[in-house]
Design a protein that fits this description.
This protein folds into two domains: about 5-10 and about 150-240, no CATH class; about 20-150, no CATH class. The protein is built from five helices and 16 strands. It has helices at about 15, 30-40, 45-65, 110-115, 215-225; strands spanning about 5, 25, 80-85, 95-100, 105, 125-130, 130, 135-140, 145-150, 165-170, 175-180, 190-195, 205, 215, 235, 240. It has a four-stranded antiparallel β-sheet. Strands 2-3-7-8 form a four-stranded mixed β-sheet, with no helix packed on it. The mean pLDDT is about 95.
């Protein structure tokens, strides 16, 4: 199916099946090895439980902002990505784009491709190495990039969406927000105004649709040709000409 604009349900249940079980440390938010160690400790002492709740509180607030496509403050930049029992030649088997337990990540090869497109002014790519907690060593000498997409455009036309949308509670009732029901990630489930086909950006999110990511057809084609598209789990959108 062809489409001038593509929707990427990156946090759908289908997308969760392809995520990598890596965790990330973020400055002054969470030290992932500490968090993981306490999380796996049972029973916990009172001090451990108190520390765990402190980490969890900061981590949840940070994650909510990240999932809402807000920029990552520089003082909270990611420092390291962690996995366990990873093979040394892992890099050749990783896709160009993948989701981890807490981040959206691209390889250097995918980043180089993305930089040829208009990604907006607020997109961020934070370099991180990959460390094996089990072996206590770096997995390789590759650099990976935690990606934060914070530029948005408003094109959603909920009244024309074929997928089931649920209203998300917001503090401002004048700015409604929706989420696509699980399992409704299919072609033309999401309808956008026809202006989306002329969007100045090649990658953006729509504030009216929770956890949404959209891309231009030219970016989709480039990612597909490079073999980096699969983990975006893209769906065609329906464009509506409003009168």
């Amino acid at each position: 199916m062809s489409s001038p604009v593509w929707f990427s349900p990156i946090y759908s249940s289908k997308a969760q099946e392809t995520k990598k079980w890596f965790g990330t440390s973020f400055k002054d938010v969470v030290d992932y090895p500490e968090y993981k160690k306490i999380e796996e400790t049972y029973p916990r002492t009172d001090a451990q439980q108190q520390r765990y709740m402190q980490i969890l509180s900061k981590k949840n607030i940070f994650n909510d902002n990240y999932l809402d496509f807000q920029p990552i403050p520089k003082e909270n930049a990611p420092t390291m990505m962690y996995g366990e029992g990873l093979r040394k030649d892992l890099h050749q088997f990783l896709p160009g784009f993948f989701q981890t337990l807490d981040s959206l990540v691209v390889t250097k090869e995918c980043l180089d491709l993305l930089m040829h497109f208009n990604l907006g002014e607020r997109i961020q790519f934070f370099p991180v190495p990959l460390y094996d907690l089990e072996k206590n060593e770096l997995v390789n000498h590759e650099t990976y990039y935690v990606m934060s997409v914070a530029d948005w455009r408003s094109f959603l036309t909920p009244e024309f969406c074929q997928g089931e949308l649920s209203r998300v509670r917001r503090l401002d009732p004048e700015k409604p927000r929706y989420s696509l029901d699980p399992g409704d990630e299919f072609d033309e489930a999401i309808a956008l105004s026809s202006e989306a086909s002329n969007c100045d950006l090649d990658l953006w999110h729509d504030p009216a649709l929770k956890n949404s990511l959209f891309m231009s057809d030219r970016l989709k084609q480039a990612l597909e040709q490079a073999g980096f598209l699969a983990n975006f789990h893209i769906c065609a959108t329906k464009l509506v000409h409003k009168q």
